[in-house]
Amino acid sequence: MKISKDMKVGVLLGGLSSEREVSLRSGTAMAAALKARGYKVATIDVGRDLPSKLTRAKIDVAVNALHGKWGEDGCVQGLLEVMGIPYTGSGVVASAICMDKAATKRILSAAGLSTASFIELRIPAKGVAAYLESVESPFGYPVVVKPNSEGSSVGVEMVQRAGELQRVLKGAARKSKHLLLEKFIAGRELSVAVLDGKPLGTVEIKTRRNFYDYKAKYTKGETEYLVPAPLDAVVERRLMDEAARVHTLLGCRGVSRVDFILAEGLEGNILEINTLPGMTELSLVPKIAAGAGYSYEDLCEEILKGASLSVG
Length: 312
What we know:
Layout: E1 8-13, H1 20-36, E2 40-45, H2 50-57, E3 61-64, H3 75-83, H4 92-99, H5 101-110, E4 118-122, H6 128-133, E5 143-147, E6 157-159, H7 162-173, E7 178-183, E8 188-195, E9 198-207, H8 214-218, E10 223-226, H9 233-249, E11 255-262, E12 268-274, H10 284-291, H11 296-305
Parallel strand pairs: 1-2, 1-3
Antiparallel strand pairs: 4-7, 5-6, 5-7, 8-9, 8-11, 9-10, 11-12
Helix pairs in contact: 1-11
């Protein structure tokens, strides 16, 4: 759709997920950037009363700055579709698929793309202790435990040895009933940003921690970011092309971020795709965009211009 500055823009932020604080930071920053560009902007803190808030706000277009459950998984997208409000980012189907790590990995594998091996753990309603005690890692150690449907590395833990697995699984099962046990791949942590189907660039992440977890992502000084990532030109091009392919394959719109581990043999293993990547001052996509010549305001305006309707 054609966006004009006569339109009222609603920035959806906050929400009810474990990523609420990150969403507040992303949305507040995006709202300020769009206001600086002359747009009429209202911020809408999302709760269960969102339909009535949207009706009262009378917005023409929604900027989705929500992260995690309900905001990133197709739920809010479906509501906006029903209400006829164009919105930024991926549609209902792509959002739902990409939030489901296991489903995403199966699609990537079927398409011949490399992703870390994993097994799914669906925690039963009864007999949880016995079920967890039966779980062993088929990948050796270290191994990664993660919830199937969370972002910002919420709940992700690395298990260094067999004796730690049950403790980590029990803690994870209290928060999520659908877990992944994923093979740990040693290598360089890299991300590629994609905007409207075209790769923007790369970043390498060097953290002082064991891996790029929630604290490493959102605590100043914990992580060093190299933009663009210091890569051989051929490897860089391959990763960027692969990220764009993933974006298109999964039906994404607007901006996405594809995370890789580059193993010693220079093979890029896809960790996941994020359809609503963080937009805080510490987030990866704004850093990559800056390296490609986009100011933060430029990036937010480009995201806004991609707003649309149509499920998928």
